[in-house]
Amino acid sequence: MKPAVILYKSLPDDLRAKLDDHFSVTEVKDVSPETVKQHAEQFASAQGLLGSGGKVDDELLAAMPALRACSTVSVGYDNFDVDALNQRHVLLMHTPTVLTETVADTMMALVLSTARRVPELDKWVKAGQWQKSVGPAEFGIDVHHKTLGILGMGRIGLALAQRAHFGFGMNILYNARRQHEEAESRFGARACDLETLLKESDFVCISLPLTEQTHHMIGAAQLKLMKPSAILINAGRGPVVDEQALTAALKDGTLHAAGLDVFEVEPVPADAEILTLPNVVALPHIGSATHETRYGMARDAVDNLIAALNGKVDKNCVNPQIQA
Ligand code: GLV
Ligand code: GLV
User: Catalytic residue positions?
Assistant: First the structure.
């Protein structure tokens, strides 16, 4: 008999067929308590769980006593209680490599569109306001040869540094737990403490996971350290930034602009004050959302679950130590 698996994300047909070849799949819309209640038997017998979003916590795990592996279609896994998974010897797989270049592209898009006010001026032209040549009211600020500070020099931070350095001649600063020799030798990146990075950067780009340590790492005090001409880009996780403090800083001129792909609450409520600010470029968490990359993530997630349930884990495993 094929192992039972719960799927809570729709997959392209060929990947769904592959999953069906290996497992007996129950597809549900999410992993909310209501859904679990509706499909209690399937959750109770499932050895695998594949999807993205939703909380995978002790309560869900208690309803899934046969579970051996989770496979998330994402690089971030802040929605998983990893301690609870470890206690129950459940493997957690993610997709850390396939989306790197695409998320770095998104970050660069936010850098350019905030600095050059692309969405704002697009609306302006389409509203028929282009009556004569533009003046200072429509000017932006330069990106090339400015200083870009990266919080979190992981794979995505490195791919961003590459774009900024070679494409735009930018000077790169970074703040990370470990020294990154490749970033330093290839892109001339300079490691510095958070305070120095915030003070010296023209663009501060956040590419950090959400953890207890990074929650509200950027609040009112940190925003005050930034230059009034500086721009904050967040494409990591929303709660790394105190959104209320950011809204205040963008309103009172502490900060020039912000480009946000992530928010404290997602979807960001339509009446959130931050969405009313002209100096905010907002995206709906599309860092990895291209046809090619979302396919690649789904493919990797399917392969990850097959590998994990066959006892073969690799670099895509968050907690390989529990297997030993
Ligand atoms: C997207 O935010 C991801 O974690 O993959
Ligand atoms: C999960 O972490 C996601 O937001 O994609």
Answer: 237, 266, 285
